[in-house]
Design brief:
The protein is of the alpha/beta class. The chain has eight helices and ten strands. It has an eight-stranded parallel β-barrel with strand order 1-2-5-6-7-8-9-10, surrounded by five helices. Helix 4 links the parallel strand 5 and strand 6. The protein is globular. The relative contact order is 0.16.
């Protein structure tokens, strides 16, 4: 089973931080997944939530803070005190950690709550600088974001993210011309998983931290899973 380390090695280290990615980079897992938002001064930063409240000692929305302001906050001690001092990462800093590995890199654009005008071109520019486009997957719950990104970078693999049942799968695949869908693993989604695989669509499931469930996903024909543990 191919596994993407979810938000870095987030089971053992503070999610979406340099140390979580450095540890994931040491693993033999297939890839890594992380989330990007846009700061007030137009920098791409790697964090899951729209606000910094849950994973730092600061408060506020990423969109209302500059990169310099965000770098003053501690993004490690919420997880465990020994990780105090971990800073928020830029997209470029995370890509640099994986520049000499073979991991696939799933960049999730978190534009489903705040639109972040122009985020697609900034992500595309960062990927261009990385110079290893074949290792990149771009995904989002905001499917218009994916459509805009595909216009800018038609040769990058993209995936549509879903959080619930998909009632018009064929229409989505036709309209967005995506290579893959990323969906929850839970039981109610399994008929959709089977339908998608029958249609020749790559399906990856999140977030699987249980080996038995991973085996069930593999039996269904899932291409890969996202796991906080990186390996199972």
């Amino acid at each position: 089973m191919k596994i993407l380390a979810h938000r870095g090695l987030s089971a053992s280290f503070p999610e979406n931080t340099a140390i979580a990615f450095q540890q994931a980079a040491k693993l033999s897992c297939w890839g890594v997944e992380f989330d990007v938002h846009l700061t007030k001064d137009q920098h791409l930063v790697v964090i899951h939530d729209e606000s910094i409240d849950r994973t730092s000692n600061g408060t506020g929305f990423v969109k209302d803070l500059t990169l310099a302001e965000l770098k003053t906050y501690d993004f490690g001690s919420w997880f465990e005190e020994k990780f105090a001092g971990e800073q928020i990462c830029t997209l470029e800093e995370v890509l640099d950690i994986f520049k000499d590995t073979k991991h696939q890199i799933n960049i999730e654009i978190k534009s489903d709550v705040f639109e972040y005008p122009g985020i697609e071109i900034l992500v595309a520019n960062a990927i261009e600088k990385f110079q290893q486009k074949e290792r990149i997957i771009v995904s989002s719950f905001n499917h218009e974001t994916i459509a805009r990104f595909q216009q800018i970078q038609p040769n990058i693999n993209c995936a549509l993210l879903f959080a619930s049942l998909i009632t018009n799968l064929d229409e989505y695949v036709r309209n967005f011309d995506c290579q893959a869908i990323h969906i929850p693993y839970y039981y109610g989604m399994r008929s959709i998983i089977q339908l998608a695989i029958q249609r020749g669509i790559i399906v990856r499931a999140y977030t699987v931290n249980n080996q038995k469930i991973a085996q069930q996903m593999e039996q269904l024909g899932i291409d890969a899973i996202f796991s906080d543990k990186g390996i199972l």
